[in-house]
């Protein structure tokens, strides 16, 4: 397959029907919210703001959707190789049906579940999120997904559950990167969140993008999507959910603890040891036109999430 360079692709080439539709829905939602505010005289904080409204409010001028072809051909999914083009080329070898998920730890309902049973009856929403990789590139992507809270609640986590850990499929026969000796990663890929982060309305279990099912290279059949954190937190192709009292060991932190922390909150003020995080290349980007924009605290979601970290030293907890 020929993978075109991102700079060959004009942003006018996309914007599928479903995205226009979801944009109209957003506008309708906002109008209804605004109407309530005006007539009933509610203060902003008294009115529960939906995750979808939060997502919409954080979008910045110039946040045009990234061409679908870039979002699905410029990927990080080391299970299929370390090149950006590897996942799109090789992830088709992963079989995603059936998809079983093992739930364990500090919860009343644990065991093995079929994915279709877990998500049955839960509502799937479309959300346009800014997405910022720790490598200092970014995209704007229309995801479909289920609020993580409603996914997790059904397992009835108990009072000891302070964190939740997510694990990617480990199946070297279908994942050529797991057979390679070069990645240095101790498979499977693991990520975690504090429970309050996992229950935040912006945290999604994504099941699709651009109005379609998730392509394998983007983490089919479901993956985490936390828009205020660096991309490495948003673990793909999840087969295990583990509720725990202790902070999980996340893959990139284990690999390079001085470069990647547990929190991974987007922070322009804290440089990666090898590069600045003050700005990012918004894809599509090229050598001649880098399309560099300033990076925002919490990737633009500070109003919605900064309170989760009140009193924490974000330099130490990077
Ligand atoms: N299992 C797994 N999940 C992963 C990764 C990975 O290599 N393996 N890469 C992470 C990184 S670094 C990024 S930037 C995003 C990329 O997601 P995308 O390819 O859908 O843009 O996935 C994250 N989730
Ligand atoms: Mo990343």
Overall average residue pLDDT: 89
Just name the CATH architecture. Alpha-Beta Complex
Structural domain count: 1
What is the helix fraction of residues, given as a range? Answer: 10-25%
Distance between the termini: 38 Å
Query: From the helix content, strand content and strand pairing, which structural class follows?
Result: alpha+beta
Our estimate of the beta-strand percent is 15-25%
User: Please, what is the oligomeric state?
Assistant: single chain
Q: Give Rg in angstroms.
A: 19 Å
The count of β-strands is 12
Number of helices: 10
**CATH fold title:** Sulfite Oxidase, Chain A, domain 2
Biggest pleated-sheet summary: 7 strands, mixed
Q: What name goes with the CATH superfamily?
A: Oxidoreductase, molybdopterin-binding domain
Q: Which regions are unreliable across 5 or more consecutive residues at pLDDT < 50?
A: 1-21, 26-44
SSE order in H/E notation? Answer: HHHHEEHEEHEHEHEEEEHEEH
Shape: globular
CATH class: Alpha Beta
Task: List each distinct ligand once.
Answer: the ligand Nc1nc2c(c(=O)[nH]1)N[C@H]1C(S)=C(S)[C@@H](COP(=O)(O)O)O[C@H]1N2, molybdenum atom
């Amino acid at each position: 397959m020929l993978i075109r360079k991102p700079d060959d692709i004009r942003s006018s080439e996309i914007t599928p029907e479903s995205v226009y539709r979801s944009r109209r829905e957003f506008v309708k939602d906002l109008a209804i919210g605004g109407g309530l505010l005006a007539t009933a005289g509610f203060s902003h904080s008294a009115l529960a703001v939906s995750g979808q409204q939060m997502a919409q409010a954080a979008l910045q001028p110039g946040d045009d959707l990234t061409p679908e072809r870039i979002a699905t051909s410029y990927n990080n999914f080391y299970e299929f190789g370390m090149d950006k083009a590897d996942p799109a080329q090789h992830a088709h070898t992963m079989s995603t049906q059936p998809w079983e998920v093992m739930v364990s730890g500090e919860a009343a309902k644990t065991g093995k579940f079929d994915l279709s049973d877990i998500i049955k009856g839960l509502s799937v929403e479309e959300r346009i999120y800014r997405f910022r990789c720790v490598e200092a590139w970014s995209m704007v992507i229309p995801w479909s997904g289920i609020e993580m809270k409603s996914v997790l609640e059904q397992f009835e986590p108990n009072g000891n559950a302070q964190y939740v850990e997510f694990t990617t499929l480990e199946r070297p026969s279908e994942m050529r990167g797991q057979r390679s000796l070069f990645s240095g990663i101790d498979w499977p890929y693991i990520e975690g969140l504090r429970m309050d982060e996992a229950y935040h309305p912006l945290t999604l279990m994504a099941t699709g993008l651009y109005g379609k099912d998730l392509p394998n290279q983007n983490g089919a059949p479901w993956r985490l999507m936390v828009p205020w954190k660096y991309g490495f937190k948003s673990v793909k192709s999840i087969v295990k959910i583990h509720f725990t009292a202790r902070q999980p060991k996340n893959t990139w932190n284990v690999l390079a603890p001085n470069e990647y922390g547990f929190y991974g909150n987007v922070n322009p003020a804290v440089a990666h040891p090898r590069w600045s995080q003050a700005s990012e290349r918004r894809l599509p980007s090229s050598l001649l036109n880098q399309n560099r924009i300033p990076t925002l605290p919490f990737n633009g979601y500070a109003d919605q999430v900064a309170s989760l970290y009140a009193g924490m030293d974000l330099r130490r907890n990077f």
